[in-house]
Amino acid sequence: MSDWLDEAPEAARSYVEGHKLDEIECLISDLSGIARGKAMPASKFARQTHFYLPNSIYYQTITGGWSDDAAIDGFTEPDMVLKPDYSTASAAPWTADWTMQVIHDAYSKTGEPVPYTPRNVLKRVVDLYLEKGWKPVVAPEMEFYLVARNVDPAQEIRAMTGRSGRPAAARQAYSVSAVDEFGPVIDDIYDFAEAQGFEIDGITQEGGAGQLEINLRHGHPVKLADEIFYFKRLIREAALRHDCFATFMAKPIEGEPGSAMHIHHSVLSTETGKNIFTGDADDETPEFMHFIGGLQHYMPAATILFAPYVNSFRRYVKDHAAPINVEWGRDNRTTAIRVPVADPQARRAENRIAGMDCNPYLGIAASLACGYLGMVEQIEPKPEFTGDAYDAEEELPRGIYAALDEFSASAPLRGVLGEDFCRVYAGVKASEYDEFLQVISPWEREHLLLNV
After folding, report:
1. Whole-prediction pTM value?
2. Assigned CATH for 125-416
3. Phi and psi of 46, rounded to 5°?
4. Which of 70, 158, 167, 394 is buried most deeply by CB count within 10 Å?
């Protein structure tokens, strides 16, 4: 067992120091970002190099249904080979015993990476950057809500009750007192994150009732996606300890802002280590403008990756804290692409389209793919938008079908992400929407039952 722990991060080794490791959770992300896999005794994990899961987990919808269209060779459920990435070993500090989590990569039985696993999709995009001598760097922001326990889907989601005994209040953005209302939950989030070796850059109150934002330090795209994958789980576990739920739905509460996963991007030269978005005179480079141009040009086609569910599109409403087009601007939070205030060597572009409900591997991969295509194709952006971008025309697809149509029509984007992945993903999303159409909503019963 000590052999594989030698390859684990320091935080993981420190967590088990002086203790007997009981269990390993072998994890892999499905298309929705749900952790799939198996748990096994630590002693068994130490003796094996891989295990097997059927590839059908990537044909599964968020409801547990299956997309037959995604399985091009028929629904035979052949096994994938799952191999551990020991560098992802991380504590599971909410468990009753000494448990660790390890993210795995998926391979075919002949040794090739499975092309439709989200972590492999992101690795594919990062490798395309490296082939050009570029090293992508990202810094994600995670927005989420702490809400009252909801065990009846027919009931509306409501804000949690804080330590004052009152429900969390809306429109308290950046209020320290509002953050204090959730103090016990946040304390556990910090403790869990420390045990897992994650560095939080800050926690703030957002504009919604019970809505918080956690910022992560910038770093390697795959590492940061791994952290978000882990963070969603640890935040949910921290909330459950205090009789509330954490939700990463894009729009959980009617009338409140949605939850985004804003993604900051910069690109370094692998030769010099310098930010290629900044020139020798600390000016903006053509690569920076082309990156923005690529985001503008390709983000509508990538929307189905940033907004994967019917609920996701409820964020994109005028004047409700989410973009409705692909305008760009400097220090302008109404635009989809924001250039934050920063020193020249920290020059970056922020994608404000992605929702927190997206799979972090796929959201980051799609965003980097758009910027990559912009630099390769030398796409010039539209002029900078000044003023309120909600006054500009809407440019994002309105709904799942429209988003899938744009996704299917973009050959360059599909080429970067991989055709096999795009086929499987589109099939699953279409199947999910067909399932949704079978459900009659309260709005339909209220307004259509007796009026049409």
Report:
1. 0.95
2. 3.30.590.10
3. -65, -20
4. 70
